[in-house]
């Protein structure tokens, strides 16, 4: 029997709005998926820290590319670019209700291992650790915030 994707390809924290996610010794990077319906628009802010309690928390100006769509599977992702920044602002339009922001572990400052993405609106954020350092059965995965 083959191993499922959870634990082999990724680990996830579905309720990750403003939650510290470890990518320093657990994963090569994290993909954040944000969603705010009703074409309301939202602002997402990326930060880095040295540990799960937020030691040395600072904005991480690493977002130069992100993707948006409606989030319901009816349209393709649209690539958007900006000067490297710690924030992404999605427009109040249906085609920007969902956003994907990818962060590589190599983008963090030295001695920083944790990242978080916070929605300033009522958007949801899912963090998907990818390129796992060690593959495990789902029940043996470490918590993403430690």
Q: What characteristics describe this protein?
A:
5-stranded antiparallel sheet, 146 residues, Jelly Rolls
Write structural notes for this entry:
The chain is mostly beta strands and 146 residues long. It has one domain: Jelly Rolls (Sandwich). Helices cover 0% and strands 45% of the residues. The protein has no helices and eleven strands. Strand 4 and strand 5 (58-59) form a beta hairpin. The radius of gyration is 15 Å and the shape is globular.
Task: Give a quick rundown of the structure.
With 146 residues, the protein is mainly β.
Unreliable runs: none
CATH topology: Jelly Rolls
> How many domains would you count in the coordinates?
1
**Total beta strand runs:** 11
- SSE arrangement, N to C: EEEEEEEEEEE
**What is the name of the CATH architecture?**
Sandwich
Broad CATH class: Mainly Beta
- Order of strands in the sheet with the most strands? 1-11-3-9-6-7
Question: Layout of SSEs?
Answer:
Blueprint: E1 10-13, E2 21-22, E3 27-35, E4 42-49, E5 58-59, E6 63-69, E7 78-85, E8 87-90, E9 98-104, E10 114-119, E11 124-132
Antiparallel strand pairs: 1-11, 2-10, 3-9, 3-11, 4-5, 4-8, 4-10, 6-7, 6-9
């Amino acid at each position: 029997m083959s191993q499922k994707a959870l634990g082999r390809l990724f680990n996830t924290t579905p309720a990750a709005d403003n939650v510290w996610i470890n990518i320093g010794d657990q994963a090569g990077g994290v993909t954040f998926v944000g969603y705010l319906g009703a074409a309301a628009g939202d602002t997402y802010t990326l930060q880095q820290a040295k540990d799960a309690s937020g030691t040395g928390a600072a904005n991480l100006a690493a977002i130069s590319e992100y993707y948006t769509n409606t989030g319901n599977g009816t349209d393709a992702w649209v690539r958007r670019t900006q000067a490297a920044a710690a924030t992404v602002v999605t427009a109040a339009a249906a085609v920007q209700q969902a956003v994907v922001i990818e962060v590589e572990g190599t983008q963090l400052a030295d001695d920083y291992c944790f990242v978080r993405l916070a929605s300033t609106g009522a958007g949801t954020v899912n963090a998907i650790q990818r390129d796992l350092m060690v593959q495990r059965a789902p029940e043996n995965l470490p918590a993403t915030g430690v």
